[in-house]
Amino acid sequence: AHGWQPLTRAIKVPTLYAVPVALVIRAFDWTLPTTLDRPIGLMADATIPAMLLVLGYQLAQGLRVSQPASLVAAIVVRLVISAGVGVGVATLLDLEGVARDTVILIAAMPTAVFTTILATEFEAVPRFVASSVVTSTLVSLFSLTLIIHLLQRSV
To answer: Which of 46, 78, 110, 128 could covalently link to 140 via disulfide, CB atoms 3.0 to 4.6 Å apart?
Structure first.
């Protein structure tokens, strides 16, 4: 039964079920009753502060990086290779102008805080992930500036 533990833990994550339900509700343009809509709205409003608290907790443990090569690889994949994938997707979909630039910029964004939540929940090196979030965010100040500059020149 031990081999099935990661799968059973993943199946218990509510997001796995909430996303398809939300897509159906939006597809049919249904309106939730206030007794459901209001608590969901309150939880949604608390999501980002809660994620930042978890990230802060992980950062309070320290930013000591025991695997610098892995951190560099994570940053390169997230900020450089993902931007290339964004260019490929935009080209494949024949996007132009603002739509093309938006796809490329979104693909080049730093590692999301949500990954810290997942790493903490599944005990998957949360300190490394928190370090990746902070480091990729700092590096993205330069990489996104460069990408925006290149996108403006290609217009």
So the answer is: 110
Give the other-Cβ count within 10 Å of 86's Cβ.
22
State the Cα torsion 93-96-97-99 to the nearest 10°: -20
- Cα gap 40→108, rounded to integer Å: 30
pLDDT tens-digit series, residues 43-74: 989 988 988 888 888 788 777 677 889 999 99
Q: What is the pTM of this model?
A: 0.73
CB 116 within 8 A of CB 58: yes
* Nearby residues of 97 by Cβ (< 8 Å), 6 or more positions away: 155
**Residue 62 phi, psi dihedral angles, 5° rounding:** 115, 155
Question: CA dihedral in degrees (109, 76, 119, 131; nearest 10)?
Answer: -90
